[in-house]
Amino acid sequence: MLTIGDKTFRSRLMLGTGKYPSFAEQKEAVAASETEVLTFAVRRMDIFDKNEPNLLEELDLEKYSLLPNTAGAKTAEEAVRIARLARASGLCDMIKVEVIGCDKTLLPDPFETMKASVQLLEEGFTVLTYTSDDVVLAKRLEEAGIHAIMPGASPIGSGRGIVNEMNLQFIIEQSEIPVIVDAGIGSPKDAAHAMELGADGVLLNTAVSGADDPVKMAEAMKFAIQAGRLGYEAGRIEKKAYGIKSSPESGLVT
Ligand SMILES: CC(=O)[C@@H](O)[C@H](O)COP(=O)(O)O
């Protein structure tokens, strides 16, 4: 079970809701993933206009926790405004803080991310913060009191998978709050990799929405995350430099 703030989830997969070929495929993919947490960009959805097409209307919202995110924000001030808007719409008290500092790489701005996270904590939000894989920043954010840390595997939408396993490993080892690897996951292998490292969960979007068959990929991600978690809990063997016979050498018939 994954616990964040006062919520507990069976699934360790959080799914983004952007850029699906159609609402119908999205709905099917969400179901196939068995996710319990859906994240969406508040700025890209007109949550107050009932006439605008809105994927949230397509879903049985009893089944999901909504995780509005502050995508599109470039300053702490913008992120805080977006979070307040999400709360005012009655969507949820959880917020994914995302403050982008570079348009080309889409990497987060560490200073504005920290500022926004602190402000939203003061305002009583359950704060899940998207960061780069900076180990010290992750520690500082945890000390500030955030509820979950979301280090990127690689840039958003890049599908490159985990580019700095060592940093992610350090973040996972040091964290006493849940670590959700977020962004850059390209394939089920990447999702399983994150879970085998000991991440508490994975948040992904493009790998599913951009797949040739989003529904199949959503299911594949579900299994990959379950397999990765099981493997982590089972405890992998140590890597050795040379071959070691796997058959016992005693008791052989001669
Ligand atoms: C949907 C969302 O929150 C994204 O900003 C997130 O970081 C996912 O990234 P990928 O699309 O690379 O999975």
TrEMBL record:
The active site is at 96 (schiff-base intermediate with dxp). 1-deoxy-D-xylulose 5-phosphate binds at residues 157, 183-184, 205-206. It is found in: Cytoplasm. Keywords: Cytoplasm, Schiff base, Thiamine biosynthesis, Transferase. InterPro entries: Aldolase_TIM (IPR013785), Thiazole_synthase_ThiG (IPR033983), ThiG (IPR008867). Pathway: Cofactor biosynthesis; thiamine diphosphate biosynthesis. Its EC number is 2.8.1.10. SUPFAM superfamilies: ThiG-like. Residues 3-248 form the Thiazole synthase ThiG domain. Homotetramer. Forms heterodimers with either ThiH or ThiS. Catalyzes the rearrangement of 1-deoxy-D-xylulose 5-phosphate (DXP) to produce the thiazole phosphate moiety of thiamine. Sulfur is provided by the thiocarboxylate moiety of the carrier protein ThiS. In vitro, sulfur can be provided by H(2)S. Belongs to the ThiG family. PANTHER family: THIAZOLE SYNTHASE. This is Thiazole synthase. It comes from Thalassobacillus devorans.
